[in-house]
Amino acid sequence: MSEHHEVASKEKYGMVIDLDKCTGCGACTVACLSENNHYVREDESDKLHSVTWMKVYKVTNGAPFPNTKVAFIPRPCMHCDHHTPCVSVCPVMATDYNPLTGIVSQIYTRCIGCRYCVGACPYHARYFNWWDPVWPEGMHKLLNPDMSPRMRGVVEKCSFCNHRLQKAKDKAYVEGRKDLKDGEYVTACAEACPTRAITFGNMQDPESAVAKLIKSPGAFRLLEKLGTQPKVYYLSSESWIRELADNALGRKKRGGLA
Amino acid sequence: MDRAWIPEGVQRCSAGVFYAWMALWLFVLGGAVTTALLILWKGLNQTNMNDYFGFGAWITADLGVIALGAGAFFSGFLTYVVRVKELKALINFAVIIGFICYSSALLILTLDIGQPLRGWFGYWFPNIHSMLTEVIFCITLYFTVLTIEYVPLILENRKIYANPVAHTLSHNFHEAMAIFAAIGTFLSFFHQGSLGGMYGVMYARPFAFREGFFVWPWTFFLFIFSAISTGPTFTILITMIVQKITKKRLVPRESLSVLAKIAGWIYCGYLILKIADTYYWATEILPSRGLTWLEQYYGYQYGLWLLFAEIGLCGIVPALILIIRRLRENDKWLVLACALASTGVLLNRFVFIVQTLAMPVYPFDKWYIYFPSWQEWLTSLAVVAYGAVIISLSYRYLPVFPYERDLNPPAR
Q: Tell me: the pLDDT tens digits for B27-62?
């Protein structure tokens, strides 16, 4: 557990999501569910009990027809970089901030399921396993062997597909390389996005696509005023979407969930 | 039938009446235990908690009873460390109430964690940065202290006391009670504070976040003050209820008045701090996060009435009753003040736990409403049945109230 993330590392992974390109198709969510061995219950209509590491919010500008505008905000874990709210509160150190990669991960076999981290996270990126994981007959053969399924009673969250990082590093090691190439390690959601709205990579590498995109004039982060320093950035040319990202912005006229 | 076990010189109801009374509470308790087993078997999907409301009725009950149980450590501190002699009449009963509160809090916590079998991880993998770690350690240790304080009273049962080992043990425990009272005070200050700190440190949750001193947010200190002021009022309230049920004066009225006066003045101090804290939160902390004060309240469930009820009706009103001698000397006013103050601290804990989570943090999100499931209600209310069982057994078989015989001389 690292309370202050001051270790200088040449790797710090982050994500940029271009909301102008996002169609809300949900491919990122499905890819995430599949990659990370999520079980799906027969009735998933209760979204307050549904585990969706990559959740897509549908928002509107609140204006009446014909001026109504709709956008989709995909929301993985923000992997907060400053005093990560979930890491500092966990009583059993089941939540870990890796200073070498900036990835916030969950140790499922240590989590006691107290849900303090769920309360501390302002992004609702943490999910509690309310039920025993059950897969349809035969489907367990399709599970990803690199990702452990989670048991009932523990909290889980997006890990930036941390297991893919391990795999990419193994490959680089075999090939005699120390550093990963840009695009060699990407998350399942970024890979699956049909419009290439999601870009993932090393923010410390100035040549990476992510590092360039986060410098875009339209780049912003969710709830930036709270000071959590998320490593997920968004791009949008629409000012009303940018105003929806933070309580400090656009107070007079505001849209909301569609 | 059980006459030999009842303390000498006191009157108790017949065994038949007592067993019928106990059967009633044990029936409720049995229902709660069955529900608890159902929850352990099926999991927390039996509750109405969800991924927005990670905390609900159980944590509210936990923090509520821990605050109300503070009467034990604070009365112990006043009796053994400050030497307020009037409270000797009350200290045994305060310890029993504390024991009930803390043991039920630990039982509820066991239910509330998703992996109860991993409960010991809290001691094995402690995160020193987490306020919850401090809570886990201090509550466990303080519960041990409460048990140590309760044991000598059990050993004083007429039959058990006849055993020379029990006799000696009880005597030696009594000799060391001041040390345990001091340890209990130290531990209690920290866990009461840490429970408040748990919410104050959630800097990304504007409803709960507070600045503070060093590593402790202001809620740390507010929770201590609210507990040491309302805990004794709860002790007084339960004492008055027991007196009403048994139709006896068990504690000299002066003892209750002294404790009520001390609690009342501390409650006044707490309310001043609480009002200042609320003002600073509304005018500084919330605007710094792009929020306004009125945005923190919503509808009936989370309306402004909660704030006025907590600080006004259940705050200023009972505080005034408790510090005005004429009123606190009147039994009815005293009961009213104690009931209101106890409700006030429950409201405070509810607001910090549930409203913090109900309030939307995203500008595009909405308020969510939480209402506990019957399983949560039953297991939370079981604390009342559990308390009734422990108090009934203690009152019948143990010399809980040292002045009972003097206050209720046998009819000539």
A: 999 999 999 999 999 999 999 999 999 999 999 999
Q: If you write DSSP's letter for every residue of chain A in order, what string do you get?
A: --SS-----S--EEEEEETTT-----HHHHHHHHHTT----S----TTS---SSEEEEEE--PPTTS--EEEEEE------SS-HHHHH-TT--EEE-TTT--EEE-TTT-----HHHHH-TT--EEE--S-----TTGGGGS-TTSPPPPTT-EEE--SSHHHHHHHHHHHHHTT-SSPPTTTS--HHHHH-TT--EEEEETT-TTSHHHHHTTSTTEE-TTGGG----SEEEE-S-HHHHHHT-TTS--SS--EE-
pLDDT tens digits for range B274-295: 999 999 999 999 998 888 998 8
B55 contact residues in A (CB cutoff 8 A):
115, 119
What are the structure tokens assigned to A142, written together? 């399709």
Length reported for chain B: 412
What span, in angstroms and rounded, lies between the C-alpha atoms of A183 and A209?
9
Shortest CB distance from A115 goes to which of B43, B55, B289?
B55
Q: What is the pLDDT of residue B412?
A: 61
**Using CA atoms, how far apart are residues B193 and B146, in angstroms rounded to an integer?**
18
pTM as predicted: 0.93
Which spans in B77-130 are helix H?
91-112, 121-124
Here the ipTM equals: 0.92
Contacts of A46 in chain B (CB under 8 A): 50
DSSP reduced 3-state for B14:
coil
